[in-house]
Design a protein that fits this description.
five-stranded antiparallel sheet; alpha+beta; 13 helices; single chain; 12 strands
C-alpha cells in the first residue's frame, strides 16, 4: 500500500494542528479512542516537529512545552481517567499510555512521572470523596475487624479494595438509605445462600432479582473484577459488570445516590432520544466509570458539579435519572438537563 502524502503550506499545517488539538483534548468526545490513540499521537508529533522546524522565532517550541499548557495537561488527565487499561497496567505501560495522551507536548521524565502520580492520587480518593459529596456526609463510618471477621469465615482472603471500603466507609448510614441493598457483614451469618455462593455478593437489587459479586477464585486479587446476575436475563448467568472493584464502587455509589438526592426532576426517570443524549454529552462531563449488565442495562454517568449526577441507562431505549445533593448543584445540572426527556 502506497503512502498517503499531504501537500500543505504553513497555514494548512497550522489548521491540521488546530484540528488535532480539538480532537485529542476534547473532554466529551464522540469517539473515545482518539485521545489516547498511538497513531494519532505519532501524526501529531510529526506536525509539532514541522511547526518547530519552520519557525525561526522559536515560539512554537515554547508553546509545545507541557509546563506552559496546564489547561491541556488537565484535559489529558481527564481523558486518561477513562482509559480501561490503566488500573491493570504496570508502570512502564502506564508511561506509554500517558505519552499517547500527552502528545504532542514536550516534557521531561519528572514531568511524566508527576502526571502519573497525580492520576493515581485522583483515582485512589475517588469513591471516598464521592460518598462525602453525593451523600452529603462529613464523617464516614466503617465496620470493625471483628465484624468483618464474620465474612472471612466464608470468604477468605478478602480483596484489599473491598476490605478498605468496609473498614473506612461501608457502615455510613446514608449509603444504606438508597434503592438497593449493600450487604453487611452480619448478613453472611443470617443467609445461607449468601455464604454458600460461588460469588461474594456485595450489592442486591431491592427486590432481590439482581446481584453483584466477586468470584471466589478472584478473592486473592487486590482489585478484582465484579460480575452481575439477574433473574430472567441470560439464564441468570453471571456476566462481567466492571473490570475492577474500584470502578464498581464508584459507579454503584453514584447510581444509588441519585435515588436519595433531595433535589431531582418531577419524575424519577425519563426517556431520552439520541439527539438529547448528544446534548447531555456536550454539556456534561462523562465520568470515568460505567456499569454493564445491572438489571440488563448499560449505564454511563455524567456531571457538571461535584454533588450532582445524571445516569444514562441503555436498555434498547435510553433512560435517564438525575439529581443533586444541593440546590446549587441541581441548578447547575439543569442548565443542561432542563426540558430534556419524556417522563416515564
Amino acid at each position: 500500500m502506497e503512502d498517503f502524502i499531504l501537500n500543505l503550506d504553513y497555514y494548512g499545517v497550522l489548521n491540521l494542528h488546530k484540528a488535532l488539538l480539538e480532537a485529542k483534548f476534547n473532554v466529551n468526545p464522540d469517539n473515545e479512542m482518539v485521545s489516547g490513540s498511538p497513531l494519532v499521537a505519532d501524526i501529531y508529533k510529526q506536525v509539532r516537529e514541522w511547526l518547530i522546524k519552520n519557525d525561526e522565532s522559536g515560539q512554537w517550541k515554547v508553546w509545545f512545552q507541557l509546563k506552559n499548557r496546564p489547561d491541556y495537561k488537565e484535559h489529558a488527565l481527564i481523558r486518561m481517567r477513562k482509559n480501561k487499561q490503566w488500573e491493570k497496567a504496570h508502570y512502564e505501560k502506564k508511561k506509554e499510555i500517558a505519552k499517547n495522551y500527552l502528545a504532542p507536548f514536550i516534557y521531561d521524565e519528572q514531568e511524566l512521572n508527576d502526571v502519573i502520580t497525580e492520576l493515581e492520587r485522583r483515582n485512589k480518593e475517588d469513591y471516598m470523596e464521592m460518598i462525602r459529596r453525593l451523600y452529603g456526609v462529613e464523617e464516614l463510618q466503617g465496620y470493625t475487624e471483628e465484624e468483618i471477621a464474620v465474612v472471612k469465615k466464608y470468604f477468605d482472603p478478602l480483596p484489599l479494595v473491598l476490605e478498605e471500603f468496609w473498614k473506612m466507609a461501608a457502615r455510613t448510614e446514608e449509603i444504606h438509605k438508597v434503592q438497593d441493598q449493600w450487604t453487611k457483614p452480619e448478613d453472611f451469618d443470617k443467609w445461607g445462600w449468601l455464604r454458600d455462593s460461588d460469588y461474594l455478593v456485595i450489592l442486591i437489587e431491592n427486590q432481590g432479582c439482581c446481584r453483584a459479586g466477586i468470584r471466589r477464585k478472584d478473592l486473592g486479587k487486590a482489585d478484582p473484577p465484579v460480575y452481575v446476575a439477574a433473574d430472567g436475563i441470560d439464564g441468570h448467568k453471571w456476566i462481567l459488570c466492571t473490570r475492577t472493584l474500584g470502578e464498581f464502587l464508584q459507579a454503584a455509589l453514584a447510581y444509588e445516590a441519585v435515588f436519595a438526592f433531595p433535589y431531582h426532576g418531577e419524575e424519577l426517570m425519563y426517556w431520552l432520544t439520541q439527539e438529547e443524549l448528544k446534548i447531555v454529552r456536550s454539556g456534561l462531563e462523562r465520568q470515568p466509570f460505567d456499569l454493564h449488565g445491572w438489571l440488563g442495562m448499560d449505564m454511563s454517568f455524567y456531571s457538571n458539579a461535584s454533588d450532582n449526577m445524571a445516569v444514562i441507562m441503555d436498555c434498547g431505549g435510553l433512560e435517564a435519572l438525575y439529581g443533586a445533593a444541593s440546590e446549587t448543584g441541581y441548578k447547575k445540572l439543569m442548565e443542561v438537563m432542563e426540558g430534556l426527556g419524556e417522563a416515564m
